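Re: your question from the hallway

Yes, I did run it. Sequences:
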Amino acid sequence: MITYYLKIAWRNFKSSKLFSLLNLLGLSVAIAVCIPLFLFIGKERSFDSGYANKDHIYRVNLIPHQKSDETWGSVPNAVAPAMMQDIPEISYAARMLKNGFGTPASLRVGQENFKEDLLYWSDPELFKIFDFQFTAGEGKNPLQEDNAAVINESESRRLFGEASPLGKTIMVDNGPTLVVRGVYKDLPDNSSIDPAMIANFKSSRMSRSIYWSNASYETFCLVKPGSDIKIVNQKVQALTAKYIKDPSDRWFSLSLQPLSEIHLHSAQVMDTYISRIGDIKTVRQIGLLGLLIILIACINYMNLATAKSEKRAREVGINKTLGATRKQMVLRFYADTALLAFLSVVTGFLLSFGSLFLFNSISGSHLAMTDLFGLPTLLFLMVIWVLVTLLAGSYPALLLSGSSALQLMQKRFHAGGLDRVLRKALVVVQFSCSIVLIIAIVIIYQQMRFVGNKNLGFKPDGVLMINISGVAKAQNLVGFTNEISQMPNVRNVAFLQSPPGFGASQRALHKADAKSDLTLYTCHADAEVVPALGLHLLAGQSLPKQLAKTDSAVYVLANKKVVDFMGWTPEQAIGRKVDVDLGENAYIVGVVDNFNYLSLKSPIEPYIYYAANDAPESFNALMVKINTDQLAGTMDKIQSAFGKDVPSVAFDYSFLDSHLATLYNADRVMQRTVLLFSCLAIFVSCLGLFGLSAFMAEQKTKEIGIRKVLGASNFSISRMLSLHFLRLVVLSIIIGIPIAVYLMREWLSNFEYRIHISWLVVALAALSGLLIALITVSYQSVKASRANPVNSIKTE
Amino acid sequence: MIELANLSKWVKAGGNQTFLLKDINLKIDKGDFVSIMGPSGSGKSTLLNVIGMLDDYDEGQYLFDGEDVGGLKEKAKQSLHKDHIGFVFQAYHLIDELTVYENIETPLLYQNMKSAERKAIVADMLDRFQMVGKKDLFPAQLSGGQQQLVGIARALVANPDIILADEPTGNLNSKQGEEIMDIFTRLNKEDGVTIIQVTHSEKNAAYGHRIINLLDARIEN
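Structure:
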């Protein structure tokens, strides 16, 4: 029997080529799109599931009392030892400190320098918590000696080639010299922690003082199986009360976060060294978009199938008089859909090789082609097959099989008009989605352009950033800075603790009469900061060029927020003493206009540049403002000067403007993904509309013929046919606009600086949706209206 | 075999009750050949559909082989009609996507017959109607007369007791019509198949043993 159904299904498929191809194309495109999304979601959900202790590993997070809506992923370096000592349920705890609090390290191996982004200083306990697989060296306790380090296989190849790295030495940032004691397999892509090199924490400069104040140490712990995590959490929280004697110094509380939640539920967690951060929201959004496209393709199928059902009805009627039961007829229609869905799944699978490549390049993911042949993908395709068959096949199957044979065999079968209403409703649903997506594309594009063109309050273009955190003393750079300052294309050279777009130190701005202090960001700098960054000076002058050896004053260049809070005008502020946690003698020497030192997503807060002898923070970057006319030549000269003057440090540089652009990477990915999805969704919707209009034109051949005989013009007929659909599209616009505006307001609220949604833009976007629909429909309308009326009347 | 007693069927349109069939009393025995005649709209096709259990009635009684059809559930009715009744239509109603062979085979599929048995029966049927050479053609490739032959073969293949034919020659020329009528006569005489046909043509009606005239939903005496 089933072969009989399939035979009929196949012949049906062939006999209505246009409908079949439209359906096949729509469904297979939808499936091809969904496969990479499925793999992406699968990968995001699989994060950290490879570790043997995955269910018992926790990260210690910190919640600052001052801003209780924030969570930090790092804690003071005293927390891990205290946990091991005080809490019996904790088997192990280990700190992970990224080198230089996140600035890349300069590694020296023999005579060569390498830049390393992923050097972590950690405790030996780390290897008890996470199971690393060692391929060389003594794996059990590789960080036994204080100066021991382990590296992963890629790092071993990079630093040492094919030679065995065991026992070789690596000098880090011209400081400690480490000995390689082990090589471990590269951690998988779906691991949250990603060290390429791990060195014993005891060799780090940061291990010299153990304190409860500076929270910069990502800390993981292994809880004994069977422990009540609530109780462990309470014990962890109790640590601050025990170890921080002065209650006014207890500025935070601690809490444990399970490893399984770190990847997808930490988007809001700040101050973490983990860079592979996912977001459950993104996963959900992407899943939703995928479902939407499948749904739109299924709607196409339902629409075309029910439209065709008037023709199919007769056949079902005959079969019923020949003795077919309802069940048999239902099965027949499902077989019909199943065949098409199967062909679509196969086609979609073949197309997915392309879509996976596209998805990877758009989203920056690294999904492997081999994943396409994995069991999960095959299961997913099976599920999609069954789902589409049920979803798309049910309506025609149940509609037709439920009617009586006599009804079905009548010349024109109507299911009480229900199918027509439903068809219209489905078209409206489909097009509303398209309208929402079109509006979303336009607004996202506008916002990203706005972000790109916004006056940041400084000029990031042509600013070269050179990482100098590996240079032991700033004096060592004097030769270099003198040399490049002489170059005709170099305008200014400034020393900075951290460039815009990177975090600065957090301190507090105190006002004598005010109860609450304001969070203040401070950045160690020199006089050249104003011209190099193109800051706009409102009053006073830049930081002093030279400081006398005995000068104990701290010179402050404040932004306008600071003086606003103090209640001064910029002019009044000059020369005033200000309490910024930098000692007694801090004076304002200049005031600059507010500038966006972080991404435009965050508001501008009080910010100062300061200069002082014995500053608590060192310089980490050189900002070189250059004339970009002969960029390649200038860069060559700067690089060779660096290699000559600072031979022991790798030349690590980037451009400020491109660094700032990376702050919006996630949004850009979102923008491109939405763009792609929208185009596909609109494309699939149009396929459906095209099919429906073709069908309508066919249905109305007789009416068109009669009207033409009565004197209707081609134009009036194509207008009649097109208007039928345009009414539906207009309804979709009315439904789609409020949804789109609501969703885009939500998205825009992520940005501190954002565009206003202009009704003109929304209207234009909606209009373009209308235009797309019109073009789709008019092809068939015009074709139908041109037909010879004699032929069309004869068809009845 | 078929007994209709005071059977009526009506539709209500705007408060008016319009009878499609009124007080029909009719007895058809096994092996009968009955022609139903009457002007358009007199209720011929409706009567045939009621007999064929494709349509319901509102009043009266319908006994099929002594069983009260009105009291049967949909499924029982369906199986009754599947096992005993074959239909022949004016517009042939062949399935366009199936070949001659497959069209004839279809009723057997719904009887859940085994493939080998089906093959034998269909082959026999093709032989009987001299259509072996045409078995792989699709309906659109046949003339009207040939299509109707396929229609009759399909109606017969499940070996029904009754053939219900709704103007079987309506779309055919007179020579083709005669051919069909000859087949009906032979079936009736040789195989004892009961035949009930609706027709407009006096000449074709005369092939039957008796003629029932319908006028305005009633049987005329």
